[in-house]
């Protein structure tokens, strides 16, 4: 059995059907033992980015209740400019599901983007006791 390297052609544009919710540059302190950015750091940033759109619906406290899917497609390097795009995919009675896609603009390839991560997360509106509550009516 042979292994092959998956190559992804750089993109020249970013998603027009999603909203830019976060931009960040990972630093050397965020690396793992291989010198790439630690996956847990990326996951934390995705959770922050994913919470931006649900906050508009919850009008109060919310919590991450599920990471439905998380795919690391390419390594993230120190100095990459990461752009986090999000879109709401489902609104329930108490919860909101969000798709997050992360694109890296490599420090030596400005103007070209590579999708490095994609994830789907679910957030739930909670009351002061941490129990699920209904989402406010949307206008």
Automatic annotation (TrEMBL):
One GO cellular component term, please give it.
cytosol
Q: Which SUPFAM superfamilies match?
A: Thioesterase/thiol ester dehydrase-isomerase (SSF54637)
Q: By its UniProt entry, which CDD domains does this protein fall under?
A: BFIT_BACH
- InterPro entries to which the protein is assigned, alphabetical: Cytosol_ACT, HOTDOG_ACOT, HotDog_dom_sf, Thioestr_dom
Look up the domain of life of the source.
Bacteria
Q: What Pfam families does this protein's entry cite?
A: 4HBT (PF03061)
Q: Which UniProt keywords apply?
A: Hydrolase
Q: Which GO terms describe its biological process?
A: acyl-CoA metabolic process; fatty acid catabolic process
Instruction: Please give one Gene Ontology molecular function term for this protein.
Output: long-chain fatty acyl-CoA hydrolase activity
Domain named HotDog ACOT-type: residues = 16-129
Q: Which family, according to the similarity comment?
A: Belongs to the acyl coenzyme A hydrolase family.
Instruction: Kindly provide the name given to this protein in its UniProt entry.
Output: Acyl-CoA thioesterase
């Amino acid at each position: 059995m042979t292994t092959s390297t998956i190559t992804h052609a750089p993109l020249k544009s970013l998603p027009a059907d999603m909203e830019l919710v976060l931009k960040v540059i990972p630093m050397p302190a965020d690396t793992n033992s291989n010198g790439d950015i630690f996956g847990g750091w990326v996951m934390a940033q995705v959770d922050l980015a994913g919470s931006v759109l649900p906050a508009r619906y919850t009008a109060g406290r919310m919590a991450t209740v599920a990471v439905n899917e998380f795919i690391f497609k390419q390594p993230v390097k120190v100095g990459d400019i990461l752009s986090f795009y999000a879109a709401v995919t489902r609104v329930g009675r108490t919860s909101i599901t969000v798709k997050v896609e992360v694109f890296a603009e490599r420090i030596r390839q400005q103007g070209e983007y590579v999708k490095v991560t994609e994830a789907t997360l679910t957030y739930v509106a909670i009351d002061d006791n941490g129990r699920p509550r209904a989402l406010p009516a949307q206008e």
